[in-house]
Inverse folding.
């Protein structure tokens, strides 16, 4: 717990954090504005948080924002830090972190495909990855309705019992 | 020589699941490659947002076929943290037994499976046959062989059947006696040695660059980096075990570490059976009334466990309603399966591409989640 208190104090001293939460003894959630996110991640990486465990997004449609969540891990202290920042939903553009954590390349591509968040500086992130020839809203957005999509894309067909042709057996 | 485009997978004995690597090859050297996932995309994360908290239990184990139990564990851990549920003592130990049996099954499959890319098919049959004995135990405990849906929020679904402890101990004795035979068959085999020694290297810088965890990481960074040690969950802090680690990671070391870890899993299960309370509740009551109306307090939490292939985690977000607001899956093989294939497969030979997939534990469904 000591190392956690030290970390919280240090981060509070260096950065303007919008919110700090402790959901667990070895987990810290910090909210920061877009401008300072890269500085915070660089600082964390330099102080032992060498691994990016996950980068993902949450669509808060009622607030009209996307929340990006960067999860970094320090293997020596066992602390996970969840760095979160919010983007306006109608202007979902952010800058890449591949300069800090190169492993983010595919996570950014993933988030771009499923949420439509563009990452400037990561050219690869604009290429499709999982969904082939996708022509609809990014599917993890809350306003995408998978049921309506599949009804439209795969219309119901009448059930035809004799779809297997009868073969006459010649003795 | 002319460069040719070659597809490894999705239908290929050396490929793990419905997954493909497109390679540009010259002779048998890979010049360029990229992973092509998407053939197994079932939209788990979206589906989970449209099911009740309890209904998701049937869905989550399917995210990784080889090792479904870590999924159940991280989901349960997340909900317990959000809702402040205290898990009964006996349930913690049962969970550990289940997780270690799952690790044993996954490692048996991996050590057996390495036979396919190197051309040593006997090990495949041995590995799968012995894994089946572990699945028999799972069937007796949970009623299902592969997808158990046994670790649930609040504990485990039901208590262990009577007399299962003796059966588990009997199985462990059998597997322990089999381990030297596996060593002779696989690790000492000249075919295996030639193909894996000093091949498919994973330097420490690459581990940090990609975010590789698990055996790949421990064999490269020379430290005992394991979630069970670094941030123990369940009752891992009350059992004694030591994990192999080293500074040089080639394909041989990684398979060797899997072999060593099997003995550690056996030891952990034995200690758990000895130390666990012999009776007591196994499931905390999480809510009164119907599970369909059960709500989880709003919040966001990340939970992770050490699967046989590395850090496996879920980010769970609740807005206080009957269904999860968002669940994001951190598959252990995501870094090495995508960026690893693109950056570090070039420079190897075609026949070694499967060795990368195998010794790094690439599991397609957890990437295509």
């Amino acid at each position: 717990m000591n190392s956690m208190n030290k970390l919280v104090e240090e981060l509070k001293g260096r950065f303007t954090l919008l919110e700090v939460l402790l959901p667990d003894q070895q987990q810290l959630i910090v909210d920061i504005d877009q401008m300072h996110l890269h500085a915070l991640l660089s600082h964390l990486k330099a102080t032992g948080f060498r691994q990016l465990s996950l980068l993902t997004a949450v669509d808060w449609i009622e607030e009209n924002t996307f929340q990006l969540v960067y999860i970094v891990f320090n293997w020596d202290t066992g602390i996970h830090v969840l760095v979160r920042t919010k983007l306006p939903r109608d202007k979902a553009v952010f800058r890449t972190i591949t300069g800090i954590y190169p492993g983010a390349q595919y996570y950014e591509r993933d988030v771009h495909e499923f949420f439509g968040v563009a990452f400037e500086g990561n050219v690869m992130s604009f290429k499709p990855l999982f969904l082939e020839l996708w022509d609809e809203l990014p599917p993890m957005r809350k306003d995408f309705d998978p049921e309506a999509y599949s009804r439209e894309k795969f219309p119901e067909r009448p059930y035809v019992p004799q779809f297997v042709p009868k073969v006459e057996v010649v003795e | 020589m002319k460069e040719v485009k070659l597809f490894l997978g999705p239908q290929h004995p050396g490929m793990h699941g419905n997954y493909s690597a497109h390679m540009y090859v010259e002779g048998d050297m890979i010049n360029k490659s990229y992973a092509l996932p998407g053939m197994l995309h079932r939209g788990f994360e979206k589906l989970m947002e449209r099911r009740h908290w309890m209904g998701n239990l049937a869905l989550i184990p399917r995210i990784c076929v080889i090792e479904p139990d870590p999924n159940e564990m991280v989901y349960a851990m997340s909900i317990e943290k959000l809702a402040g549920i205290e898990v009964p003592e006996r349930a913690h130990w049962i969970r550990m037994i289940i997780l270690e049996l799952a690790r044993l099954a996954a490692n048996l499959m991996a050590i057996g499976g390495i036979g396919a890319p190197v051309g040593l098919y006997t090990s495949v049959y041995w590995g799968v046959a012995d894994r089946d004995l572990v699945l028999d135990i799972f069937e007796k405990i949970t009623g299902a062989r592969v997808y158990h849906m046994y670790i649930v929020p609040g504990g485990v679904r039901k208590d262990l059947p009577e007399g299962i402890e003796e059966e588990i101990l009997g199985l462990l004795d059998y597997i322990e006696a089999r381990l030297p035979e596996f060593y002779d068959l696989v690790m000492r085999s000249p075919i295996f040695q030639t193909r894996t020694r000093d091949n498919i290297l994973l330097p420490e810088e690459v581990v940090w660059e990609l975010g590789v965890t698990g055996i790949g990481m421990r064999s490269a960074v020379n430290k005992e980096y394991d979630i069970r040690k670094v941030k123990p969950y369940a009752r891992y802090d009350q059992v004694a075990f030591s994990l192999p680690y080293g500074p040089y990671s080639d394909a041989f070391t990684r398979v060797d570490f899997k072999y060593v870890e099997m003995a550690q899993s056996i030891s952990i299960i034995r200690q758990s059976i000895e130390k666990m309370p012999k009776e007591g509740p196994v499931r905390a009551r999480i809510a009164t009334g119907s599970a369909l109306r059960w709500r989880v307090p709003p919040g966001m939490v990340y939970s992770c466990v050490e699967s046989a292939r590395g850090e496996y985690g879920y980010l769970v977000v609740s807005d206080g309603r009957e269904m999860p607001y968002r669940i994001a899956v951190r598959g252990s093989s995501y870094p090495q399966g995508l960026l690893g294939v693109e950056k570090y497969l070039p420079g190897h030979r075609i026949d070694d591409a499967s060795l990368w997939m195998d010794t790094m534990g690439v599991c397609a469904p957890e990437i295509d989640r």
